[in-house]
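Final report, closing paragraph on structural work. Over the funding period we assembled a curated collection of sequence-structure pairs, and we close with a single example.
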Amino acid sequence: MTLLQRYFRSQAFWPLVISLSALATLALLTQSLSTIDLIVENRQSAFVFLKVTFLALPQLVSIIMPLAVFMAIIFAVNRLNIDSELVVAKASGMSPAQIGSPLLRLATYAFILHIFINLWVQPTSFRAMRAELLSVRTDIAAQMLRPGEFIRPATGVTVYAREIKSSGDMVDVLIYDARSTIEPMTHSAKSGQITKFGDRTLLALKDGNIQTLNPTGTLDIIEFETHTIDLTDIMAMDPVLRLKTSDRYLHELLRPTDRERANKKGYRKLLAEGHARLSAPIYNIALTLLALAFLTRGEYQRMGYGRKIALCAITGFVARLGGFALTAAAESDAALNPAQYALPIAISLICGFMILKEGGSKKLKKVKIDTAYSHREAPV
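Its predicted structure, as stored:
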């Protein structure tokens, strides 16, 4: 790689870092809106919120990386055009292929990183995020109680605790149970503790009483030192960690179990996700070649390259949206999975041919000009 080509690559590297960071931050903020309600409602800490949010980052980076590369290449080439550096490079004999070589190498690095994220980083982080979300949703005390508030975890049941300590102990507990319309009961206790015993959820109360209003209108009060209430029916939750397609590794997507194959709809989704993981990184190279085909070919234009850039950007974004559409369509028809590869590969081949053809025509034109000058200067 020549010194000039290294300079071209450096002009695209920092725009890539900035665009990827900006898009990832925007996507991260959008993603956080879908989890903040869950975290707040379940009284989780800011650390849990940040952990869940950042564990979603690898998938967001995977989605936006080809577009970030595309935007960085357009910005870099346009800047080189504006500063007339591409004109100098072409005048020195560099073809569009030679000019685009360092930028294509940068896209190849992005391709490798994208593959690594899709095949290992994303499923690993998503499994950790899914486990954390399951822990949040099955936090029984958080689901059932909020300090100083009357909560209705189920129809006919109202629970109150003045304070919940860091150990999970509840202070000044009041429970109104009207599930039995004949004899509603009110439990009050100085302290309480929610525990899990096998598949059962129990609330152990200490130093309190049970108040029952009889049909005759009299109030019965039963004092107790310890009393246990079964909350299994109230706090029925699914404690099993169920993996989605985004949480699975490639071999789990392309080679599912026989039970998963039996579910035709789910099987098609697994295959579509697996092929999308492999085909999406190709867009880093395809969109780079698309930008180079638009902006490195042709003659210098004094009026600027706004029209070319607009057409290039529209074409690139439509192509990437087409990839997403093919993935969605492949979930219904597995025969469309090869099309997920065909689209970016076709873009790469067409744009690569145009770039190489431009380079060949430039060389041929230069040979004709040199030949014409040699005949003109030949002695008569």
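The chain is about 60% helix and 15% strand. The radius of gyration is 32 Å. We thank the funder for supporting this effort.
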